[in-house]
Amino acid sequence: MKKILMTGAAIASLFASGAFAADLPVKAPPMLAPVWNWTGFYVGINGGYSWGRSNATVDPNTVFATNIRHDVNGGVGGAQIGYNWQVNPNWLLGLEADIQGTGERGGSVDTLPSIRIANFGFSGTAASNTSFPWFATFRGRTGWLADPSLLLYVTGGLAVGEVKFDTQTTLVAQRFDGNSNNPIGGPVSVVGATVSESQTRVGWTAGAGIEKKFTPNWSGKLEYLYIDLGSATYFGGTANETSVSFHDHVFRAGINYQFTAGPVVAKY
């Protein structure tokens, strides 16, 4: 009997030890912190609005030289492609190229200076238009990661775009009496042909933006660019010779898809 009691006590002790062990806290595995991976190729689309300015001098080498300013405004839309290098947890370098189609255009009818030659007076108007059908940029990017999924960046580089300018001049001649200075007869108007020229211009661009990752592969961005395509001569060597300068302010939003496997995981 004594041996049976000792055996029962041992079994009870084993069960009790197991129960106490089950009540002990279990140490959880260490947490893994995701680190967003920005390195890799990406493509995207964008759209926005642009405020361009054209400053032209029509007939700069004649007495009818006229300064003309056009507000060349309209929507923009296009696509971009690029590559990012996340050089460390806080800094990023990148290259990006984009091409845009635009609806930017503007025009005006401006009065030419009046002149008097002997008994004849001359005046007129110039009806002109500027449009900016497309542009492309090739830029570098330098960015700071405000947090692992939020990028603040500056950007700059080469800009290429088509600037189109057309004009039509109307000249009015009036004869005057040499003594009384009164008009003799009615004015005579001569309407010139409309002349138009498009040039692919090269300049520079600079800007800044903010980009936010919403998933490992998808991000959205807001961006501002200033584009300066300098000055060029249109209709050179003709009576309509015109010097045209052009610059543009672009605000746009975009979506990018990055070709990477997703976030890497930092182990502790």
Architecture overview:
There is one protein chain. The chain has 268 residues and is mainly beta. It has a domain at 39-108 and 133-165 and 201-262: Porin (Beta Barrel). Helices cover 8% and strands 72% of the residues. It is built from one helix and eleven strands. Strands 2-3-4-5-6-8-9-10 form an eight-stranded antiparallel beta barrel. A two-stranded antiparallel ribbon has the order 1-11. Strand 4 (91-117) and strand 5 (120-147) form a beta hairpin. The relative contact order is 0.20.
* Rg calc: 36 Å
Could you spell the SSE succession in H and E letters?
HEEEEEEEEEEE
Helix content: under 10%
Structural class by secondary-structure content:
mainly beta
Describe the largest sheet: 8 strands, antiparallel, barrel
Number of helical runs? 1
Molecular shape: rod-shaped
What's the total count of β strands?
11
The CATH architecture of the domain at 39-108 and 133-165 and 201-262 can be given as Beta Barrel
Q: What spatial order of strands do you see in the largest sheet?
A: 2-3-4-5-6-8-9-10
Mean pLDDT across all residues, rounded? 85
Content of β-strand: over 45%
